[in-house]
Amino acid sequence: MDKQKIIYHKLLNLVKPENVKVNETLKNHLYTKLGGVADFFITPTTFQEVQNVVRFSNEAEVPFTLLGNGSNLIIKDGGIRGIVINLKHLNDISSEGTTLVAQSGARIIDASRHALKESLSGLEFACGIPGTVGGALYMNAGAYGGEIKDVLDYAYVVDKDGNLVKRLASELGLDYRTSNIPDNGDIVLEATFHLKPGNYEEIKAVMDDLTYKRESKQPLEYPSCGSVFKRPPGYFAGKLIQDSNLQGTNIGGAEVSTKHAGFIVNKDNATTSDYISLIEHVQSTVKEKFGVDLEREVRIIGEDLE
User: Fold this and answer.
1) Residue in 118, 147, 190, 297 annotated catalytic
2) Active site includes 288?
3) From 81, 113, 177, 299, active-site residue
4) In this structure, which topology does domain 3-86 adopt according to CATH?
5) For residue range 45-95, what is the model confidence (pLDDT) as tens digits?
6) Residue 20 phi/psi, 5° resolution?
7) Which helix (H) or strand (E) holds 47?
8) What pLDDT is attached to residue 227?
9) What's the pTM value of the predicted model, to 2 decimals?
């Protein structure tokens, strides 16, 4: 029996068999609609199953990659070797008093909507962020003056050894679009937020306003990886790109959005290579014109096509 079959049969004993897939096309699971094939694609339904897979990965020396919905992630055309873990089935959201608890695979948008339903204020800023709760913690997601670190109390994670650990928000190194979660090798399973009592109509008005701003300014009609670049000190990335006359520039099926210069959209079956080439073209053009280095906010992972 070859190594892939051995790994497959081992995984069937750790996770429900219907949640173990081989040679799965990743672009079918990602917001960007980009990415090659994963050797093994696992969708656990319990915390224990996540721990099982991490421990097996360590013992068998099979690499694993955690994948949310990829709203701020680009996976290369060659895909990902080893195990890809997706937590889409861990998506419960609940609240008690002013505390809201959301599992990693839930969308942060849905967490903000739950808060609205319970007249809880604090997550309004997240009403238009397309990522998962786990992804939001991973990059300390934010918008319109709010960010995750403002409202996070603590999280439960599986550490690199497969242990279930409680991490306080202060332990996560939350900063502008970053955290220490990837450096620690943690997998976020659940987040607990501290919110404030509010007025339903007032909270809804704020969320409606932010939704309007997002829909009117962002190219939501096409798949994308969200805001591609971090805000450079003293500048706005979108304005620099716009002033470089790059809107509408395309490489293959990837295009700098004509609606919002900070976005690169998958307009016509783009490949990851198209995306990366266009990102590099934007960076070099802005550097040449304004002397400003644009740092990527979006992450790029995976293998190149051979």
Assistant:
1) 297
2) no
3) 177
4) 3.30.43
5) 999 999 999 999 999 999 999 998 888 889 999 999 999 999 999 999 999
6) -120, 120
7) helix 47-60
8) 87
9) 0.89
Write out pLDDT tens, residues 226-244. Answer: 889 999 999 999 999 999 9
What pLDDT is attached to residue 2? 85
Structure tokens at 70: 């990829």
177 classed as catalytic: yes
What's the CATH fold of domain 93-202?
A: 3.30.465
193, 152 Cβ separation under 8 angstroms: yes
Domain boundaries, the chain: 3-86, 93-202, 219-301
Helix (H) and strand (E) counts for the chain?
A: 8, 19
- 103 and 155 in contact (C-beta within 8 Å)? no
Distance between CA atoms of 49 and 43, rounded to whole angstroms?
A: 9
297 a catalytic residue: yes
C-alpha distances in Å from residue 157, one per residue of 76, 104, 119, 154, 192: 27, 9, 28, 10, 12
Give the CB-side neighbour count of residue 25, counting CA atoms within 13 A: 5
Rounded-to-integer distance, Cα 279 and Cα 268, Å:
16
Residue 4 has a pLDDT of 86
Cα gap 180→259, rounded to integer Å = 33
The whole-angstrom distance between residue 123's C-alpha and the CA centroid of its chain comes to 17
What is the rounded end-to-end Cα distance, in angstroms, of the chain? 26
Q: Which of 104, 227, 244, 257 is catalytic?
A: 227
According to CATH, the topology of domain 219-301 is: 3.90.78
Residue 251 pLDDT more than 80?
yes
Residue 72: per-residue pLDDT: 83
What pLDDT was estimated at residue 1? Answer: 59
Q: Containing H/E element for 80?
A: strand 80-86
The pair of structure tokens assigned to 123 is 């997550």
Two tokens at 222?
């096409």
The tens digit of pLDDT for each residue in 156-176 reads 999 999 999 999 999 999 998
